[in-house]
Each structure stands twice: as C-alpha cells, then as structure tokens.
Known about the structure:
14 strands; four-stranded antiparallel sheet; alpha/beta
Amino acid sequence: MKxxxxxxxxxxxxxxxxxxSRSLSSPSRQxxxxxxxxxxxxxxxxxxxxPRTLADLRxxxxxxxxxxxxxxxxxxxxxKKKPLPKPKWMKETIPGGAKYAxxxxxxxxxxxxxxxxxxxCPNLGECWSGxxxxxxxxxxxxxGDTCTRGCRFCNVKTSRTPPPPDxxxxxxxxxxIASWGLDYVVITSVDRDDLADQGSGxxxxxxxxxxxxKPKMLIEALVPDFRGDSSCVEKVAKSGLDVFAHNIETVxxxxxxxxxxxxxxxxxxxxxxxxxxxxPVGTLTKTSIMLGCGETPDQVISTMEKVKEAGVDVMTFGxxxxxxxxxxxxxxxxxPEAFKEYETRGMKxxxxxxxxxxxxxxxxxxxxxxxxxMIEADRAINSAS
Length: 385
C-alpha cells in the first residue's frame, strides 16, 4: 500500500516533536513543547564559583533550571496544499522614512548591492533609519550579486562563472558610507569559489579603504568560508575590521540539507577559530543560525556549545523565512518565548552577546548597537590600563 507524501511528512514530524498541544483555535495548528532538552535557566547563583569546564556548566544549569515542560516551542506551517497563515509575531513592517530613501537612492547611484534588499530582510527600514537606538546600520554586499554556490535557503543569484569583481568597488563603498553618516557597517559578499583568493583580497581592500576615510567607523565583515583556506582568513582578519563574522547557518546535523555541498560545519567552525587566532586582540567573532529548518532543541543547544568552544563572542538566532517556492520550505515557526530562552541559555554559556528573535537576522541593527557599545567599552578599558 502506497503512503501519501503528506502522511510521510507528518510521520517524520511526529518523531521530532516531544509533545503536542492543540490549544489554538485552528484544529490543524499544533504547538511543540520544549521537553526534549534540559530546561533553560533563568538565573545562576552569584555565590557559586563560575564553571570551569563545559561539563561543570551543564551540571549547574541542570540543577538550577526551573521546570518548563509545558513551554510552547513552535507553531507548524501546515501542508503545501493547505498552508497556515504566519503567526502574529512574524508580521513585517513596510520600510520608509527620509534616511531610508536617501540610502536607497545612493545605492542605485553607485550601483552597490545590499544583502538587506537581496534577502528581503524584514528589518531593512529599521536598520537604515537608525530605529530606537539611533545606531544607523547597513549591510553592503561586495563582489557582485551572483554567487558560485546554491544554498537551499538563499535568494541570491547563482552561477559557476559570475562576472569579475568591480575594481572600483572599495572606493565606491567608502563614498557611500561617508555620505550616509552610519555608525556601524556590515560588509558581506557572495561566495566566489571562481577567484584565486576567493574574494578575500577584495574584502581586505574594502575594509582598509573604509578605515582610511572613516577611522571611527565600526566595521563587521560577514565572510564566506573561503573553503577553509587559512591565508584568506588571515588576510581579512588582519585588515583592520572590528568584528569577524561567519555564519554556520544551521545546526550541525542539518548542514548538508540546508547549505551548499561545499560548505560544512567543521569548515565553518575552523574559520571562526582561525579568525580569533589571526585577528588583533579585541576583535570580536560572530556567527548566526536560522531556526525553523527542522532542528530540535537538543541540536540547537549542542551546536551552541560547540560554537562557544570555538571562542565565538557573539551569536544570533532568527526565524528562517522561505524567499520563494523554489527554496527550502519552513518547517515551523519558533515562538518568541523559545527564542528568548535560547538567548538566556547563550548568555549563561558565556557568550558576550546573544541576539535572538523571530525577526533577528545575522546583520541586525539592535545587535550591532550592543556590539558597538562592547567595543567602545573594551577600548576605554585598554586605553586606561
């Protein structure tokens, strides 16, 4: 007897879910509860000495954690034929405002690309305008708009032979940033496996040009994995940037299902480790993962632990959103409460900062505001000593 595709999908999902609650008004919507991993802590006793090993941390978290067995973890997305509407916390706002319009006009004038637009980021208007924090940010995408890889979640164009990089791009980026008056800029790129140095030289030149024109500008480079080439990583890490970022994208177990076959968890972790070794003291390292791809809470926690062991300072979590019907479907919508619990767990693990929420992206304005504050505080301490 043949089993329908929808029945297979439901069976697989039931294996991942620990418990279900049908408390929403729609009978087809389900909520997952967080019982498959140790409950996440709220506080740690300040009188207890800090844990020295990962095993010590796990024991302490387990002993001091409250019971969250009824915690609502996620909402399902329905089936392909009968999709459920997005939950209320995933509603997007329409970008606008004078600063947003000015930045967009300058981008078109200088023929620059931003990952904010390419990825259809829901925070675009908030980041470009400065929002509540007043820290205006933008994420510039260099090395063209065509990638040599084809990850299942990404909406950027792909080709084995993209056009050559624009030699004037570093100066164009510097001109744009100087005219915007931004406090913090993220420079990212497509993968360029077709280039001998995989684009690392272009990254370094862009950072150095920006620092020459805007010495106080804080620069984050969100880089590809450079296929694990240490010379490429070293070139960017020593370019003068303030934050070296590389995204592992998803939990270790889902790497091959989500990312291009040339990417993998170990390679990404090695890049983050090398960056910490090569970069000057005080340079922060950062990574990000998407939730809602089919991962379990246990897998998320395990991945966080390995990222922390790699010496990463900052980690962000956001909800995966399917950019088109050609891309990997959303497995589930993780609740804001669950994102908050991952943030709590991450801070207890020792990350210097964790940004976690459904609308958070790897280049996120609110996170950059706190990173900017951390860097300035570190420099003040170093200059006083």
